[in-house]
Amino acid sequence: MTMEVESRREVSGEDDLARQELVVNVGPSHPSTHGVCRVIVHVDGEVVTKAEPVIGYLHRGIEKMCENRTYLQVVPLTDRLDYVGSMYANWAYCRAVERLASIRVPERAEYLRVIVCEMQRIASHMMALGSSAADTGAASMFIYAFDERERIVELFEELCGARLTYNYVRPGGVSFDAPEGWTDRLKDFTNNHRTALSEMDRLFFGNVIARGRMKGIGVLSAEDAVSWGASGPVARGSGVNWDLRKHDSYSVYPRFDFDVPTGSNGDAYDRGRCRLFECYESCRIIEQAAAQMPEGPVKTDGLSRLISPRPGDAYDHIESARGSLGVYVVSEGGPRPYRVKFRSPAFCNLALLPMLAEGHTLSDLVVVLGSLDPVFGEVDR
Amino acid sequence: MALVDRIGAALDRTPGGIILTSVDAVVDWARGRSLWSMPMGTACCAMELIAASFAKFDFDRLGTFPRPDPRHTDVMVVAGTITRKMAPAVKRLYEQMPDPKWVIAMGNCAVSGGIFFYDSYSVVRGVDEFLPVDVYITGCPPRPESLQDAVLQLRELIATESIAPGVRRQRELLLPTSGDLSFGQRPGVVDEGESG
User: Fold this and answer.
1) Distances, alpha carbon B5 to alpha carbons A18, A54, B9, B14, B19, in Å
2) What percent of chain A is modeled with pLDDT above 70?
3) What is the distance in angstroms between the Cα of B177 and the nearest Cα belonging to chain A?
4) Cis before B100 (ω within 30)
5) Across the interface, do B54 and A150 touch by the CB < 8 Å criterion?
6) Residues of B with Cβ-Cβ distance to A127 under 8 angstroms
7) Which member of B68, B86, B93 has the closest CB to residue A31?
8) pLDDT tens-digit series, residues A318-332
9) Using 50, 70 and 90 to split pLDDT, how confident is the model at A341?
């Protein structure tokens, strides 16, 4: 089931040599498919002529389930969407509900949301860099990157008691205030993380094998990135300077000084490197936010547990680690949403796979897939 | 009771005889201490499965080492939600594993469907609908320590097993036949066509 030949077909080449076109099935359980993605690959020799991703192996019907839950009960479901970056779906959903029900959020809660989401961005990028490095054979990079992720998970555990599914951002604020000394430990983390990042940059991106495996693989032009709806590091690796934190700024992001790293070649190497540099920028944002964070409450007072917004709809989007994550909520006035729709960046980015993998070898397919960084909880929903 | 009768009674109690019990002890010791795992990580629990293998938790010290190929492995760790579309693939991977083999259901989704138990239309309510599960771990997701505890519990379970013929076969009889994946009716859902 991991990788097997589906069919063979004789094709005649231009040089009159008899050739066979193989149809190879990769997945749905394959160590390099990043979850449960199945790719049906047509290969001529070793060169991919066509790659079709087959999705739906993790379709759990979350959007439909949201219609049976109250507005507050939907938040734990959003955790399970993008399980590498749970905080983003929490926040995007809460922003849409807050817009719909006109809920004001205390300023300290906004700062805490920014801090946890930037930490989540580092954690998610560490996972993306580590697993795509493991796909190219650099297992040690995975261990270094996962070690950094583990430190963030420890801080999250201290903050809200969960290691993976946080349920931290709620409509009207966040669930808990930061414990005593947490911001100091956060500062220690960002200081150490910068050293670790430059170490990883030399270890992996400076390595001749990684350069050979990733440079020039899966080249995405800036025009294609825009027209296919790519976002996040996939679009920025192609030189599209588009970041919702900067260009459709939300929450308290306008108060922070940070840059948006972009690539120039649009290949797997640039996408990976973009993620690495974003981690530096996230460290900058975390430090500024921790220094500016005001005292005060972290939840809106007097907010009913049974939120019943007026009939209407609201859309809000934030910049997740994978790109522009949008949530559309429709209310009919009752305590349950009429419809919740998630615009998932991983789904749009995965659609690029057939175009990017074509013409590369089968072993480069996993590099392309790793550089797109899809999380299948979010793709299939 | 005469000594001969006592020996006879002991032989009845130990399937395969007295000689096999000491061989069993050695075999079970070896099997329980090098459980290579087939990481069947489909969703969130896969992250904790990875975390368990890396620094700080270090699964290797229990002899558990993840191998992506089912033919190299002894224990399948089902970590994550199994949907109806995924279930035949999981079952087929289980069938590719060589005997003896064990299954750990990691996380609420693999145990019972978890958060998706009541109103999801596509999730299998627990991996034990089509696999014989040995150890269940609850949690959404469970901590890596829980997974390590599950391996220690599995080790105790293996210590009670025997290589005698007929002992392991009883477990295999519980397995559904290949290709038979008829899942039970979802709880609390009335078939609209019939009630019509």
Assistant:
1) 77, 66, 6, 14, 18
2) 94
3) 19
4) yes
5) yes
6) 47
7) B68
8) 999 988 999 999 998
9) very high
CATH code at B36-158? 3.40.50.12280
What integer best gives the mean pLDDT of chain B? 77
- With contact defined as beta carbons under 8 Å apart, do A87 and A76 qualify? no
ipTM computed for the complex: 0.81
Q: What six digits make up the tokens of A264?
A: 């120039």
**pLDDT of amino acid A124:** 92
Q: Which residue has the tokens 């954690």?
A: A123
Q: Where are the domains of chain B?
A: 36-158
Q: What is the mean pLDDT of chain A?
A: 87
> Tell me, what DSSP letter sits at residue B66?
B
Instruction: Retrieve residue B71's tokens.
Output: 């033919």
pLDDT of residue B170: 47
Show residues of chain A in contact with B94, CB under 8 Å: none
First to last CA, chain A: 24
Alpha-helix residue ranges (DSSP H) falling in A102-163 = 107-135, 139-160
φ and ψ at A133, to 5 degrees?
A: -70, -40
Handedness of CA A219, A222, A228, A231 (dihedral sign): positive
Q: Which CATH superfamily is domain A62-380 in?
A: Cytochrome-c3 Hydrogenase, chain B (1.10.645.10)
Domain ranges for chain A: 3-54, 62-380
What element of type H or E holds A280?
helix A268-292
